Amino acid sequence: MITDLVSRALNAAAPGQQSRVAFVDDRAAHLNYLLPEGAFDIGFPWYKPNCSKADRLNTEMQKRCAEFEFSNPIFEVRVGFYTQAGNALVETRTLAALSRKRLCRPSGHFTFDLEQNGLVEPNVSIETQYTAKECFVRLVKGQIDVVTLVKSEGDEQIRQLGVAKAIAEIGGLESVQTLHALVSKQNPNGLAQLELINRGLAELMASGKWFEVVASHQGRQLALMN
Length: 226
Hints:
Blueprint: H1 2-13, H2 27-34, E1 43-47, H3 59-67, E2 68-70, E3 75-84, E4 102-104, H4 112-115, E5 125-127, H5 132-140, E6 146-150, H6 151-161, E7 167-169, E8 175-184, H7 190-207, H8 209-225
Parallel strand pairs: 4-5, 4-6
Antiparallel strand pairs: 1-8, 2-8, 3-6, 3-7, 3-8
Helix pairs in contact: 1-7, 5-6
């Protein structure tokens, strides 16, 4: 879906300009070599942390803030927080209420949103070695207090496990994280490339094409899940 949106944005902004999309399954290589050394002009999709709080972020995220420029948001991802049904945390609207709580964020998922809000050891206890399914099983058993992950995945795991009545979402803590294209600050044409994407995204939004693309891809994904 993101590839489709980026390709359409570039075509909308510069119809006569050819572009090539390649899939490189090595995220570190994107940031350490391919973009800085000019093998590619644009990388996507990448989350953008709150760079005004870079001192709270891990080294990789600090590097992302310091060495790259970001496009306007391409897509928003909602991140949810879940606890046991009946837990007083269900009503909270402040992350400070999670102080000293036991959190589970599935293995392989980003954690910058937690870091930039101070949800790190020893303020909280965070488990990151479990799968999403295992996190929810631990929650149901009372071995942790909160599971936090991308909402679409969390809601699907709850459905598959059949534990909807045992788990409640902490709606007041839901956050929105954004996906972007980025360019290396070493790329002399980087800002011009971002301007193309930004202009193209604006055209897609204005014409309604952005919504059509998202609805089409999400519809296919739901069909596969069902």
